[in-house]
Write a structure and sequence with these properties.
The chain has twelve helices and 26 strands. The protein is an alpha/beta fold. Among the domains are: 156 residues, 3-Layer(aba) Sandwich (Rossmann fold), CATH 3.40.50.980; 99 residues, ANL, C-terminal domain (GMP Synthetase, Chain A, domain 3). The radius of gyration is 23 Å and the shape is globular.
């Protein structure tokens, strides 16, 4: 893994400086190196480990040990249903062989430790914390499947080495920073932020679970200079921080990913932490970074009515828009977003149906739809999410972002329902921060932001968010609720 040589360097040069912390528990660089190395005593190189547990120091040390040398680590969401977990273990054994224990270890404070395992290949080879061959695999992550077996994405060490070089430069990350990533370490965002900090020699902090008060406290009292999180978390922190007068401390930068940063969240962040640079980036697990944007303090935002822009190509990324035959399209035309970079994954260990991650020569795509205008990439949505309303192709994400920018709207979901006249009709479901808003008011507010043909025909209240068992938004579930007249989605008055 391309941070282990760096970790050894930090442990040698700065042994007693803070390295990682989870809540009030912490390790310095020397302790992190020693505890991770202890998990490899008597264990040969090679094989794979399975990591499925909540945020803890034990998670971090097992991640470091699990990717040492030529080892591979499968990082699985703790919310993965047990039936899917059993399927994943069976697929791992089918592709990578039968696992065997890595070390006994101890349970973390929550008692949620899952055994980490390794396949023995060469008992005579000593176990050390070093970086394996650049082209060797080190990480398996799952796509966000629902009831079926999720696809398994695999990465080489070289892909993350290239990613570290690009991201630390783009975000300006250095050893003087203290990064707080309050989300789960099993997520792609959290795991990358941890590893990026180990590579850069920057102190990393997280929490056992997300709590607004705990995050504000850490920012104010623990020297946090940098936040890494999803927009929904940022909105809560910023809006409640403004209301409570929470001190943003020395916060200098905020990195946001996982969804488009809406205008309301950006404005709240600027009011709460006016000195912070806000970075947002768009990417995919299979592709890594695709594009990015910097929102500088004191610089007016671009036209906030443009809800689709996701910035310029990320450093080291070449960008193209391809048609269905893989031909490059001119600026302004819509097609599949494709990239050419050293950061792209190897693809899928299993689950490749030919409709998701696709290689077209050197170009790679997951078939997200978009266009390039004046050098800026505009992300419209997944091809599978597209709604054909009266012959017009509409992407729900654009309407959701417009709704989320309206005062009082906390969450918004848009989907299409079968319609004998239109083919599909657009419907929206919203969770409001206060009551009394009707469909007519939402429609009138959206009319100033969107093409009239993209306005939803029906509006529903969200009394519960339509989430899968893994906590992912589900438009399919929303359609089920609306079609069945479920009380969780009553229709809004006109």
């Amino acid at each position: 893994m391309p941070f282990l040589s760096r970790l050894c360097r930090w442990a040698s040069e700065r042994p007693h400086e803070p390295a990682v912390a989870v809540g009030r528990d912490s390790l310095d660089w020397e302790e992190l190196l020693e505890r991770s190395g202890a998990l490899l005593r008597g264990v040969p190189d090679g094989g794979y480990s399975v990591l499925r547990q909540g945020n803890s120091l034990d998670f971090i040390t097992r991640w470091v040990a699990g990717v040492a040398g030529e080892r591979r680590c499968a990082v699985l969401d703790t919310g993965l249903p047990e039936a899917q977990y059993a399927q994943v273990l069976a697929e791992l054994e089918r592709h990578w062989g039968r696992p065997a224990p890595l070390s006994s270890g101890g349970a973390d404070a929550s008692g949620s430790l899952r055994e980490t395992v390794v396949e023995h290949r060469d008992a005579g080879q000593p176990a050390v914390l070093d970086d394996g061959a650049p082209d060797s695999l080190f990480l398996l992550a799952l796509t966000s499947g629902t009831s079926s077996l999720p696809k398994a994405i695999v990465r080489t060490r070289r892909s993350w080495e290239a990613s570290f070089e690009a991201s630390t430069a783009f975000f300006g990350l250095g050893p003087e920073d203290v990064t707080l990533a309050p989300g789960p370490l099993t997520s792609g965002l959290g795991l990358y932020a941890l590893s990026e900090c180990l590579h850069a020699g920057s102190a990393f902090r997280t929490l056992t679970s997300f709590d607004v008060g705990d995050v504000h406290d850490a920012i104010e009292h623990d020297g946090v200079t940098r936040l890494v999180l999803v927009p929904a978390m940022l909105r809560l922190l910023a809006e409640r921080g403004i209301a409570a007068g929470a001190d943003p401390g020395g916060l200098r930068s905020v990195v946001v990913a996982g969804a488009k940063l809406d205008a309301r969240t950006l404005e709240a962040t600027r009011r709460w932490a006016p000195a912070a640079v806000v970075y947002e980036y768009y990417g995919a697990q299979e592709l890594s970074f695709v594009s990015g944007t910097r929102h500088l303090p004191g610089v007016p935002a671009a036209d906030e009515a443009e809800f689709t822009s996701v910035g310029v190509p990320f450093p080291g990324v070449e960008l193209a828009i391809l048609d269905a035959e893989g031909r490059a399209l001119p600026d302004g035309e819509t097609g599949s977003i494709a990239v050419r970079s050293a950061m792209v994954s190897q693809g899928y260990l299993w689950g490749d149906d030919g409709h998701a991650f696709t290689r077209r020569g050197d170009w790679c795509t997951v078939h997200d739809q978009g266009r390039v205008v004046d050098g800026n990439l505009h992300f419209l949505g997944r091809a599978s999410d597209m709604v054909n309303a009266a012959g017009l192709n509409v992407y729900p994400q654009e309407i959701e972002r417009a709704l989320a920018s309206l005062p009082g709207v906390e969450s918004a979901f848009v989907t299409g329902l079968d319609d004998g006249l239109r083919g599909q009709r657009l419907v929206a479901a919203v969770r409001m921060g206060h009551g009394g808003v009707g469909a007519g008011q939402l429609r009138m507010a959206l009319a100033d932001l969107l093409d009239s043909r993209k306005l939803p025909q029906e509006y529903y209240e969200l009394r519960e968010l339509p989430l899968t068992g893994r906590g992912k938004p589900s438009r399919a579930l929303l359609r089920e609720w609306i079609t069945a007249g479920d009380p969780r989605t009553p229709r809004l008055r006109p």
